[in-house]
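Researcher: Can you fold this with 2'-O-acetyl adenosine-5-diphosphoribose in place?
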Amino acid sequence: MSFEEDFRSLARRLTREARITVLTGAGVSAASGVPTFRGPGGLWKDFRPEELATPEAFAKDPQTVWEWYDWRRQKIAGAAPNRAHEVLAAWSRRFPGFALVTQNVDGLHERAGTANVTRFHGSLWEVACSAKCRPSSWPDDTVPFPRLPPPCPSCGANLRPAVVWFGEAIPAAALASAERALDCDVCLIVGTSSVVYPAAGLALEARRRGAFTVEINPEATPASGAVDLALPGRAEEILDDLEDLLAS
Ligand code: OAD
């Protein structure tokens, strides 16, 4: 089938009756000016994300790790949701069986007004006490922090961003709601390199359970050959075109 036919056959599946699950990654926010983790512009001061986003890196050098997160928070605070976020937000209100599971910690899906968002990797806009003096995280939108690492207001230990680092477990509630979302009719995998597990395994599990799986990404990924349909292109363009087709 041609790209055009593939595209139209996908649009026909996006009905009010369909259970639609969308799995997103950093590529969805690229058009908002938020750097992706891998590929061009994915490096920060010669560090790879795997070198910064770990409990070990934070224990050794919390200052550098926080500089990276503070830089990302500043970038994102000055960014706005793009057309990809907007279309997905519109679908979340239009389709009763819609669920979105994001690896993104930037909060742009929420800012676009998306309903039923599962944050698989936590949020950059929440912090937690690294000494665990409080059991859970709390919202904090200070940008930039006047002092890095920021101190816990209760005990003075270093705060940490409430995101999931390499080697840490996915929060149980997020894992459970992502699991439920995999029982769907159509599963779109948008803007993720599909290399970080367990998130990268979600699409295959949805397919195993019978979903029609579609990847939207300008680059080929390890998922491209394993999905039912790979649509090469940018999220903000393909989702906009799909929305046009649905409206016509
Ligand atoms: P990556 O940076 O690994 O991958 C971004 C993907 O987006 C790539 O496959 C790009 O080809 C694609 N892309 C770029 N521009 C795009 C566009 N306009 N439209 C669609 N796709 C586009 O980001 P993730 O897969 O999200 O973990 O990374 C996974 C995890 O690794 C992140 O959640 C983060 C990171 O370390 C944590 O924070 C725990």
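Model: Folded with 2'-O-acetyl adenosine-5-diphosphoribose in place. The pocket of 2'-O-acetyl adenosine-5-diphosphoribose is lined by residues 25-27, 30-31, 36-39, 42, 49, 53, 103, 105, 121, 163-164, 191-193, 196, 217-219, 221, 234-236 (CB under 6 Å).
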